Amino acid sequence: MNKTRKVLFSIITGACLVSLTACGSADSSKRQPTTQQEQTTETTTTVEAKEDKAAPEVTETNDSSTEAPESTENNTLVVYFSRTGNTEKIAEYLMDITNADSYVIDAAVPYTDEDIEYNNDSCRANQEQNDKTVRPEIANPIDSIDSYDTIFLGYPIWWGQEPRIIDTFLESYDFSEKTVVPFCTSGSSGIETSEKNIGELINIGNQLEGRRFPAGASKDEVKEWYDTLNLNK
């Protein structure tokens, strides 16, 4: 009986040991994904910490790159007033050719089709053109032109002259150290009278000879004229 009990005890003890080992292995395998997740979290945290430390260096690099445009700062501005879109088209050609900034002169009280019926003596445009003291208000005046050296000034010809709203713009800023280049669109009238008016109205540092364009002028024509100005030399 004693031998039998010893054998049974050995068998039971061995079975328990095997069971405990299996349970230990099973528990270990169940914890493994959690451990890997924690390791991943720790790795991510470490990477984030490194990125945080590197951030100031990236900022310094960006600050350095933002200084570059100062050496290539655009010093040309295309300013224009266009009621029917003809002058606007020429202005857009100039912007493409020169890569210049632009400013559109908009009237605080927009001009309607009736306002520019030139056959009607009492229309708004005719009344303004007949009175050289009229200064139509500009809707959104540009704050300053100080940063520009060259200004292209575009407008349609109304009764042989520049529209009075162009005079409003010219009298609002200091052009004494600027190069001003007029350009206009018209059916037949030339630019000469408006150029003379502009030169007499304000003090301009350097007023270059302008150019009249027909409504259907091409970009090549505008480029050809621009090249004669020798502004890049």
What tags apply to this protein structure?
233 residues, alpha/beta, Rossmann fold, six-stranded parallel β-sheet, 6 strands, 12% strand, disordered N terminus
Brief rundown of the structure:
With 233 residues, this protein is α/β, with parallel strands linked by helices. Helices cover 48% and strands 12% of the residues.
Class per helix and strand makeup: alpha/beta
Q: Which regions have little confidence, pLDDT < 50, spanning 5+ residues?
A: 1-72
Residue share in β-strands = 5-15%
| Helical residues, percent | 40-55%
Count of DSSP H/I helices: 6
Do you know the CATH topology of the largest domain?
Rossmann fold
CATH superfamily grouping of the largest domain: Flavodoxin domain
Name the helix and strand elements from N-terminus to C-terminus, one letter apiece: HEHEHEHEHEEH
pLDDT averaged residue by residue: 78
Tell me, what is the CATH class of the largest domain?
Alpha Beta
CATH architecture type of the largest domain? 3-Layer(aba) Sandwich
Distance between the termini: 121 Å
Apparent shape: globular
> Based on DSSP secondary structure assignment, what is the total number of beta strands?
6
- Total domain count: 2
Largest sheet: 6 strands, parallel
What radius of gyration results from the CA coordinates?
40 Å
